[in-house]
Amino acid sequence: MRVVHVSDCYLPRLGGIEIHLRDLVHHQRLEGHDAQVITTTPRATGAVDDSWVRRVDAAAGPLGGLVRADAALRRLLDDLAPDVVHVHVSVLSPFASTAARRASLAGYPTLVTVHSMWSGLGPLPATAHALLRLGSWPVAWSAVSKPAAAPLRRMLGPGRPVHVLANAVDPTSWRPSGAATPPCVPTIVSVMRLTHTKRTLPLGRILLDARRRVPADLPLRAVVVGDGPQRDALERFLRRHRMTDWVELRGCIDRTAIRQVLADASVFLAPAELESFGIAALEARSAGLPVVASSHSGVVEFVGHEVEGLLGPTDDALAGHLARLVTDAPLRTRIACHNATVPPRHDWVEAGRRTQELYAEAARAVRPRIRALTPVSAT
To answer: Which of 45, 113, 209, 308 is deepest in the core (most CB within 10 A)?
Structure first.
């Protein structure tokens, strides 16, 4: 099967869509599919792309760039003749949205996957729905979690199903080798982009609140992995509250180094409320760490309260959960043992099966239009 993936976001940018799409294409190609990527993300200076990555230029300004990218997209679709077009969209994805409309109306089976939370965005999704008439497109709709699917279902209405197509990891690559040795000092870890959406400053406040709830004579560490525009603000917060002696900002590191950070940690914290899925949290859960996360986020897709971790609706609840796990060794050990021995169901075998199901759904969505465009022979 020839699959063409379209996304505004791809490597070398780092984020949920970029990492998931790279891994999805890798696994599809291992399965024998001809998976290709079309993106408007420029390549890194001096880097050489894989042969299946096609980059189109959208750098000539919002309108001119999009028109030029659309023309390139039309040529690529004609050249590649895909069996299915898989479009990956976030909050603002002008190229991918254009691709979904163009591919589906041209008769290509098209699956759209929403990788972000469209709640809390004011009138933006409803305005896009009204202007673009999203509900009329002959596409199959999906989102990466039940919380991410809910606002999309409300927008499209009861006549258009929105399926859940969850992200995935390779649990065996994150599972600790041998018996895990608990760190001498309880250690909280977060792996995230340091942005407003990921709630970088609330992360600092949650850590501070948790520290205040833990007995003063109990040592505590925290490690924050990642980088982004709010790093300077977080550094100022840590200095202002005298937290630099126990909170370390590790910056961006590769997956091998992240595995070691997780192996040396006690608890994983995911503070984002608009987290549509939470790949980093799933990796931590696969590594055996109890996960503390917002009950509003897509992390609920793979973390049950008091099973794989602790969920809370507010920052106050998250700080309390951290303090509880840090001080309650039997609870922390029970959850860690469960996570280390019971693999999550969100692996690439399940993701591949579900993706193929929705490709078939996309084909069914476009068939009525294809029949309508097929000339009827005179008899």
So the answer is: 113
